[in-house]
Amino acid sequence: MTTVVYNYSAVLGEITLMTPAFNASSTSTFNVSVTPTASARCVELLNSSSGPPAMYEPIERYIISAVLFLFPCLTMLGNVMVIVAVLTHKRLQTVTNAFVVSLAIADIMVAILVMPFGIYQQFNNKNWQLGRTWCLITSSFDVMFTTTSIFNLSGLAIDRYLAICRPFTHELLTRRKVILMLSFCWSVPILISFVPILLEWNHIGIEDYVNCAFPPEDPSQCTFIVNKGFALICSSIAFYVPTVFIVICNVYIFRTARKQAMQIRSLELSAHRHHRKGKLKHETKAAKTVGIIMGCFFICWLPFFIMNIIDPFIGYKIPYNIWAVALWLGYINSTLNPFLYYNFNRHYKMAFRRLLSCKVCRGISEFQDDVVPSTLCAEMSHSASANSNSNLHNGRHSIPHSQINFNVDL
């Protein structure tokens, strides 16, 4: 008996004749069986969704891919410089910068294990040829490193809060405790990314839509779809709850810093108060830098996480291009962090300049850079004082010492 199987697609509205399978039979007759793979339910689900992604011409795909390729390169270069700067400069080897290095590692992993696959899909018009398993793994990496980044930012917020609001408690923040905090920042994201995604918990309750939009027998598409429960729980753990926590910490930080600054101004300055004021100024600047970094993170990732919550509740109607822009805006945050350190942190700026001028390669330490200007300042100040005293003895008019300004930024 010969069987001819027809694949009727209600979505495309066509009948495709499949290769017939011939079986030996004593009769010359054959049966025709029509097997529909898409029901009316599929038509209804897909018609109410956003539809397939836009297809681009080859020249457009080359341009888009070339532009996107710049971001992993800049991300790698900038964050490697951050790590090298901390490792080679004693001033940067602090508790705060332990979280900065951890954040830089997460950003490098985004550049290596997440961005290239996004570029691959853009270049191939979303045609995925790397297999179903690797699709799940790359989606897990995406969720994991995003969550790791915001957990490290939470660690930075805790460190700044303790340094300004609870300075004595901050002194008890030992190396072991920092390692435990960093371990938490990496282990929890692994549990909330790889475990549910590889087990496909994100498809529970939406199996009909997933099977219609992304048939299991067609591995040429790789899209991360989540149900309502997964969207709410995962987004809350990875973004919304840490965001609220970080905002509260920063509110306390800046309130305390302003209150202490007003108290210091109202008192007479002594040597001890000079020291306290200088320390507070240093801690406040560090908190300001951390606040700017956190603000950029929220601006970059907020559109994505808003859509991640909304899309399952409106039937997956957000167009693909809007998703792509929001997702890459989040990826670009990994590129921005080193530039923020350079612009808003004097020690990082000095370290980056020393790395780019190859002073580290020549064995010139950061403290040797300070010797010459400090010695020169002292000699010039001593010489000016001596000339002033000499002019006073000779009865000649001299420039007041208060008008001599040496602006040496150490």
Automatic annotation (TrEMBL):
Q: Which GO terms describe its biological process?
A: adenylate cyclase-activating adrenergic receptor signaling pathway; positive regulation of MAPK cascade
Q: Which InterPro entries match?
A: GPCR_Rhodpsn (IPR000276), GPCR_Rhodpsn_7TM (IPR017452)
Q: Which residues form a coiled coil?
A: none
Q: Which UniProt keywords apply?
A: Cell membrane, G-protein coupled receptor, Membrane, Receptor, Transducer, Transmembrane, Transmembrane helix
Q: Does the keyword Ribosomal protein apply?
A: no
Query: Domain named G-protein coupled receptors family 1 profile: which ranges?
Result: 78-341
Its transmembrane ranges are: 62-87, 99-120, 140-158, 178-199, 230-254, 286-310, 322-344
Membrane topology listed for this record: Multi-pass membrane protein
Q: Where in the cell is it found?
A: Cell membrane
GO CC annotation, single = plasma membrane
SMART domains per the UniProt record, alphabetical? 7TM_GPCR_Srsx
Molecular function terms, GO-annotated:
G protein-coupled receptor activity
Q: Which PANTHER family match?
A: ADRENERGIC RECEPTOR-RELATED G-PROTEIN COUPLED RECEPTOR, OCTOPAMINE RECEPTOR BETA-3R
Q: Which family does it belong to?
A: Belongs to the G-protein coupled receptor 1 family.
| Protein name in the entry | G-protein coupled receptors family 1 profile domain-containing protein
Q: From what organism does this protein derive? A: Dreissena polymorpha
